[in-house]
Amino acid sequence: MTIVYWILIFLGTFCGMEFMAWFTHKYVMHGFLWNLHRDHHKKDHKSWWERNDAFFLFYAAVSIFCFVRWQYYGFWAGLPIGLGIFSYGVTYFLVHDIFIHQRFKMFRNANNWYARGIRRAHKMHHKHLGKEEGECFGMLFPPLKYFKK
Q1: Can you give the pTM of this predicted structure?
Q2: Is residue 141 part of a domain?
Q3: Which of 84, 85, 147, 137 has the alpha carbon at shortest distance from 115?
Q4: Which residues contact 148 (CB under 8 A, 6 or more apart)?
Q5: How many CA atoms lie within 13 A of 117 on its CB side?
Protein backbone atom coordinates (compact mmCIF):
# COMPACT_ATOMS: atom_id res chain seq x y z
CA MET A 1 0.00 0.00 0.00
CA THR A 2 2.93 2.33 0.66
CA ILE A 3 3.93 2.18 -3.01
CA VAL A 4 0.45 3.41 -3.98
CA TYR A 5 0.81 6.39 -1.64
CA TRP A 6 4.31 7.00 -2.96
CA ILE A 7 3.07 7.05 -6.58
CA LEU A 8 0.08 9.26 -5.72
CA ILE A 9 2.30 11.74 -3.87
CA PHE A 10 4.80 11.79 -6.73
CA LEU A 11 2.06 12.39 -9.34
CA GLY A 12 0.29 14.93 -7.15
CA THR A 13 3.53 16.83 -6.63
CA PHE A 14 4.39 16.75 -10.34
CA CYS A 15 0.93 18.06 -11.29
CA GLY A 16 0.96 20.55 -8.41
CA MET A 17 4.16 22.01 -9.82
CA GLU A 18 2.21 23.12 -12.88
CA PHE A 19 0.13 25.31 -10.57
CA MET A 20 3.30 26.51 -8.82
CA ALA A 21 4.84 27.38 -12.20
CA TRP A 22 1.77 29.45 -13.09
CA PHE A 23 1.58 31.12 -9.67
CA THR A 24 5.31 31.89 -9.53
CA HIS A 25 5.33 33.17 -13.08
CA LYS A 26 2.32 35.45 -12.63
CA TYR A 27 2.92 36.81 -9.13
CA VAL A 28 6.68 36.51 -8.60
CA MET A 29 8.38 36.65 -12.01
CA HIS A 30 5.95 39.23 -13.39
CA GLY A 31 5.68 40.75 -9.92
CA PHE A 32 8.28 41.67 -7.36
CA LEU A 33 11.13 39.72 -9.02
CA TRP A 34 10.55 41.13 -12.50
CA ASN A 35 14.18 42.36 -12.49
CA LEU A 36 15.33 38.72 -12.62
CA HIS A 37 12.75 37.64 -15.22
CA ARG A 38 12.91 40.65 -17.55
CA ASP A 39 15.90 39.39 -19.55
CA HIS A 40 13.88 36.32 -20.50
CA HIS A 41 11.44 38.54 -22.41
CA LYS A 42 13.93 41.03 -23.79
CA LYS A 43 17.54 40.04 -24.26
CA ASP A 44 19.75 42.81 -22.89
CA HIS A 45 22.93 40.76 -22.72
CA LYS A 46 25.13 38.54 -24.87
CA SER A 47 25.54 35.76 -22.32
CA TRP A 48 24.06 32.29 -22.61
CA TRP A 49 23.07 32.58 -18.93
CA GLU A 50 20.03 34.71 -18.10
CA ARG A 51 19.24 36.25 -14.72
CA ASN A 52 15.95 34.39 -15.13
CA ASP A 53 17.84 31.11 -14.78
CA ALA A 54 18.26 31.84 -11.08
CA PHE A 55 14.65 30.75 -10.49
CA PHE A 56 15.57 27.10 -10.99
CA LEU A 57 17.86 27.37 -7.95
CA PHE A 58 14.87 27.97 -5.68
CA TYR A 59 13.01 24.86 -6.84
CA ALA A 60 16.21 22.82 -6.76
CA ALA A 61 16.72 23.88 -3.14
CA VAL A 62 13.17 22.84 -2.21
CA SER A 63 13.67 19.47 -3.91
CA ILE A 64 17.01 18.93 -2.15
CA PHE A 65 15.40 19.91 1.17
CA CYS A 66 12.81 17.15 0.64
CA PHE A 67 15.54 14.61 -0.16
CA VAL A 68 17.44 15.59 2.99
CA ARG A 69 14.29 15.30 5.12
CA TRP A 70 13.71 11.82 3.70
CA GLN A 71 17.31 10.61 4.01
CA TYR A 72 18.30 12.01 7.39
CA TYR A 73 15.06 12.69 9.26
CA GLY A 74 12.86 9.77 8.27
CA PHE A 75 10.24 11.81 6.41
CA TRP A 76 9.25 9.07 3.96
CA ALA A 77 7.12 11.38 1.77
CA GLY A 78 10.18 13.57 1.20
CA LEU A 79 11.41 11.20 -1.50
CA PRO A 80 8.31 11.22 -3.74
CA ILE A 81 7.83 14.96 -3.17
CA GLY A 82 11.47 15.69 -4.01
CA LEU A 83 11.34 13.44 -7.06
CA GLY A 84 8.08 15.05 -8.20
CA ILE A 85 9.63 18.53 -8.02
CA PHE A 86 12.82 17.30 -9.70
CA SER A 87 10.88 15.51 -12.48
CA TYR A 88 8.80 18.59 -13.19
CA GLY A 89 11.99 20.66 -13.32
CA VAL A 90 13.55 18.30 -15.85
CA THR A 91 10.34 18.28 -17.92
CA TYR A 92 10.11 22.08 -17.75
CA PHE A 93 13.74 22.40 -18.86
CA LEU A 94 13.17 20.04 -21.80
CA VAL A 95 9.94 21.75 -22.92
CA HIS A 96 10.74 25.39 -22.18
CA ASP A 97 14.48 25.82 -22.57
CA ILE A 98 15.28 23.14 -25.12
CA PHE A 99 12.10 22.69 -27.18
CA ILE A 100 10.64 26.21 -27.16
CA HIS A 101 13.66 28.51 -26.77
CA GLN A 102 16.15 26.18 -28.49
CA ARG A 103 18.94 26.86 -26.01
CA PHE A 104 20.25 23.52 -27.21
CA LYS A 105 19.51 22.65 -30.82
CA MET A 106 17.21 19.67 -30.29
CA PHE A 107 13.58 18.80 -31.09
CA ARG A 108 13.51 21.39 -33.89
CA ASN A 109 11.36 19.31 -36.23
CA ALA A 110 8.60 18.39 -33.77
CA ASN A 111 5.39 19.46 -35.46
CA ASN A 112 2.46 17.62 -33.87
CA TRP A 113 -0.65 19.29 -32.38
CA TYR A 114 0.85 19.46 -28.88
CA ALA A 115 4.15 20.94 -30.10
CA ARG A 116 2.35 23.58 -32.16
CA GLY A 117 0.05 24.43 -29.23
CA ILE A 118 2.91 24.80 -26.76
CA ARG A 119 4.87 26.99 -29.17
CA ARG A 120 1.81 29.13 -29.97
CA ALA A 121 0.98 29.65 -26.29
CA HIS A 122 4.51 30.61 -25.40
CA LYS A 123 4.78 32.94 -28.38
CA MET A 124 1.66 34.76 -27.20
CA HIS A 125 3.18 35.14 -23.76
CA HIS A 126 6.38 36.61 -25.20
CA LYS A 127 4.39 38.99 -27.40
CA HIS A 128 4.39 41.35 -24.41
CA LEU A 129 7.87 42.54 -23.52
CA GLY A 130 6.87 44.32 -20.34
CA LYS A 131 5.95 43.27 -16.85
CA GLU A 132 2.23 43.87 -17.37
CA GLU A 133 -0.33 42.12 -19.56
CA GLY A 134 1.68 39.02 -20.39
CA GLU A 135 -0.64 36.04 -20.19
CA CYS A 136 0.72 33.63 -17.60
CA PHE A 137 0.01 29.91 -17.59
CA GLY A 138 1.68 26.64 -16.74
CA MET A 139 4.14 25.21 -19.19
CA LEU A 140 2.76 21.74 -19.84
CA PHE A 141 -0.95 22.49 -19.98
CA PRO A 142 -1.58 25.94 -21.47
CA PRO A 143 -5.17 26.99 -22.28
CA LEU A 144 -6.90 24.85 -24.91
CA LYS A 145 -7.41 27.84 -27.23
CA TYR A 146 -3.78 27.43 -28.36
CA PHE A 147 -4.35 23.87 -29.60
CA LYS A 148 -6.52 24.73 -32.59
CA LYS A 149 -6.00 22.94 -35.88
Answers
A1: 0.82
A2: yes
A3: 147
A4: 117
A5: 16
Q: Is 65 inside any structural domain?
A: yes
Q: What is the rounded CA–CA span in Å between residue 147 and residue 120?
A: 8
- Domains in the chain, number: 1
The residue segments making up the domain with residue 53 are 2-9+20-39+48-147
Report the C-alpha gap between 29 and 41 in whole angstroms.
11
15 found inside a domain: no
In terms of Cβ atoms closer than 10 Å to its own Cβ (0-12, 13-18, 19+), residue 127 is: exposed
Tens digits of residue pLDDT in 64-111: 999 999 999 999 999 999 999 999 999 988 888 888 777 777 777 777
